[in-house]
Design a protein that fits this description.
By secondary structure, this protein is mostly helical. The chain is built from 14 helices and no strands. The chain has one domain.
Length: 299
C-alpha cells in the first residue's frame, strides 16, 4: 500500500507539473515567435563562419519544432543556399535545445543542471556543425523535395493585437499538448512505477555513479525510449530518485532527444546514410561527454 501511494503521488504531481510547464512555455515561445519575422530567422541561418553556427544554434533553441517541421525547414535552407555548417548546427540544436526540454530540466533538476545542459548541448551544436562542414558533409545531401510542414502553426489571418496573439499562442500550445499528452502520460506512468516499486539497490548497481558504463548505455537506451521529450524526462527523474547517476540521466535525455527514431528516419530521406550516421555519432558523443561532465560538476 505504501508503494501504491508513492506511485499515485508521483503520477499526479509530475503530470500536473509537466502540464503546467508545457502549456506555459509553449504559449510564451509561440507568442515570442509571432514578433520575430521569419525572414530574420532565415537571415541568421545564412551567416557564414563560426558566427553563423552560433546564430543557427540560437535559432534552434528558440524553435520548438517537431521533426516534421524541422526537416522541411532544413531542406529549404539548404536549397536556398544557406551554409551547410550553420544548417547542421540548427539540425542538432533544434531537438536538444527545445525550450520545453530546457524548462523541464530546470524545473525538475535545478537551475545549475539546466545551465550545464544548455551549455553542453549548445557548444556541441556549434562545434559539430563546424566539423561536419569541414569534413565535406555537404556532399551527402540528397536531391529531394519535402512537403510543407505537417504541423505548421501558420494561420491565414495573423493576429494583430497582443490579446489576440496571446490567445492564438495558447491555442497553438493546447493543440501541441493534446498531441504529446499520450506520450507524457506513458512516460509519467512508467516513471511512477519505477519510483514506487523498483528497488533502489538494483538501480544503483546498474546505473549508479560508480558504474563507468552507465552513461554510454543510457545514451543508447534513450534512442528507442525517447519518442518524445515528455516521455523520457519523468522516467529519468524517477531513476534519479532511485540512485541513477545524474550523468546517466542526462545521457538518456540527450541521446533520446537527438537520436529519436522518427527524426532519424526523416533525416534519412534528405541525407545520405553517411551523414545520418555522422549526426548520430555527434549526438552520442555529446550525450556521453555531457553525462561525464554532469557527474563531475553536479556531484
Amino acid at each position: 500500500m505504501n508503494s501504491l501511494a508513492k506511485t499515485i503521488e508521483f503520477f499526479v504531481f509530475i503530470t500536473a507539473e509537466l502540464t503546467i510547464l508545457f502549456l506555459g512555455i509553449s504559449t510564451l515561445v509561440a507568442l515570442a515567435l509571432m514578433y520575430i519575422p521569419q525572414d530574420k530567422l532565415r537571415s541568421w541561418l545564412s551567416k557564414r563562419g563560426i558566427f553563423g553556427n552560433f546564430l543557427a544554434a540560437i535559432v534552434g533553441s528558440l524553435t520548438p519544432f517537431c521533426a516534421c517541421s524541422t526537416i522541411p525547414m532544413t531542406l529549404g535552407m539548404l536549397k536556398a543556399g544557406a551554409p551547410f555548417g550553420p544548417v547542421m548546427s540548427f539540425v542538432i540544436s533544434s531537438p536538444l535545445l527545445n525550450p520545453i526540454i530546457i524548462t523541464m530540466v530546470g524545473a525538475l533538476m535545478g537551475i545549475k543542471a539546466c545551465l550545464l545542459y544548455f551549455g553542453i548541448t549548445f557548444i556541441g551544436s556549434v562545434v559539430f556543425g563546424i566539423v561536419l562542414e569541414k569534413s565535406g558533409g555537404a556532399a551527402w545531401v540528397k536531391n529531394v523535395q519535402v512537403k510543407q510542414s505537417c504541423c505548421s502553426t501558420a494561420t491565414p489571418d495573423e493576429p494583430r493585437t497582443f490579446s489576440a496573439k496571446l490567445k492564438a499562442s495558447f491555442l497553438t500550445a493546447w493543440k501541441d499538448f493534446r498531441g504529446v499528452l499520450p506520450f507524457l502520460l506513458i512516460g509519467v506512468a512508467i516513471g511512477a512505477a519505477i519510483y514506487g516499486y523498483m528497488p533502489q539497490e538494483f538501480v544503483i548497481s546498474l546505473a549508479g555513479p560508480d558504474n563507468p558504463f552507465a552513461i554510454p548505455v543510457a545514451a543508447i537506451i534513450g534512442i528507442p525510449l525517447y519518442i518524445r521529450a515528455e516521455t523520457a524526462i519523468p522516467i529519468g527523474m524517477a531513476l534519479a530518485e532511485k540512485g541513477m547517476s545524474m550523468g546517466a540521466v542526462i545521457a538518456l535525455i540527450i541521446g533520446g532527444a537527438g537520436m529519436a527514431i522518427p527524426e532519424m528516419s526523416m533525416l534519412a530521406g534528405i541525407f545520405r546514410k553517411r551523414l545520418v550516421a555522422s549526426i548520430v555519432g555527434v549526438i552520442f558523443a555529446t550525450a556521453v561527454l555531457g553525462g561525464f561532465a554532469f557527474n563531475l560538476i553536479i556531484a
